[in-house]
């Protein structure tokens, strides 16, 4: 199954209506999908943060300023890259934003090509990370589809145990072990213990019961 790839979305939050409109027009002309907000509270209320892309965020705004919006984004676990727009007087605030994880800050008035280049870098990286996370989720979902007994058998296979050893450990017939092993391999899309080990390693599972690191026994 091929993971669904979400197209990048560029979000712009700025109380300067002229700059908001011109930036949106510029980025749309470059082929990006763009949504705009004039204040941070409205953005946070409306935005689900599900799609990759980039957030262009003004530092100084009435109500919630850019740093407060960034703090809330961090609290929500957002990994969407943030580019701050700042007037000269708010550069110290922008530096604080970088220390909190922002990608960069651009001083107003923003050079159009600089904005396009930085948005492209951030959105492309965000989309690639989203695709990787989606692929990992799909692989982990395969393990979740296993029955408890299939997980037990696969866990013993990861320990490089033969069918007879697994049968003794689980109190099963060898033929039953072979059946569960074949079913598990089919669901996981693997054909050998080596491929099973590779898939489990990519998903962060251990051999013991196919538990993820830090999971509750």
Please supply descriptive tags for the structure shown above:
217 residues; alpha/beta; Rossmann fold; Arc Repressor Mutant, subunit A; 2 domains; 5-stranded parallel β-sheet; 9 helices; 12% strand; disordered C terminus; DNA binding; Sig_transdc_resp-reg_C-effctor; DNA-binding; phosphoprotein; WH-like_DNA-bd_sf
Could you give a quick summary of the protein structure above?
By secondary structure, this protein is an alpha/beta fold. It is 54% helix and 12% strand.
Overall description:
With 217 residues, the chain is α/β, with parallel strands linked by helices. Helix content is 54%, strand content 12%. It has helices at residues 17-29, 40-46, 66-75, 91-99, 112-144, 148-158, 163-170, 174-188, 193-203; strands at 9-13, 33-37, 53-58, 82-86, 104-107. Strands 2-1-3-4-5 form a five-stranded parallel sheet, with helices on both faces. α6 packs across α8. The longest helix has 33 residues, at 112-144. The protein is elongated and about 75 Å long.
Please render the helix and strand layout as text.
Layout: E1 9-13, H1 17-29, E2 33-37, H2 40-46, E3 53-58, H3 66-75, E4 82-86, H4 91-99, E5 104-107, H5 112-144, H6 148-158, H7 163-170, H8 174-188, H9 193-203
Parallel strand pairs: 1-2, 1-3, 3-4, 4-5
Helix pairs in contact: 6-8, 7-8
Radius of gyration: 24 Å
Number of domains: 2
Measure the end-to-end span. 30 Å
> Would you report the number of β strands?
5
The strand order across the widest sheet is 2-1-3-4-5
Strand-and-helix sequence, N→C?
EHEHEHEHEHHHHH
- In the CATH hierarchy, what is the superfamily of the largest domain? Response regulator
Output mean pLDDT: 87
What's the CATH class label of the largest domain? Answer: Alpha Beta
Specify the CATH architecture of the largest domain. Answer: 3-Layer(aba) Sandwich
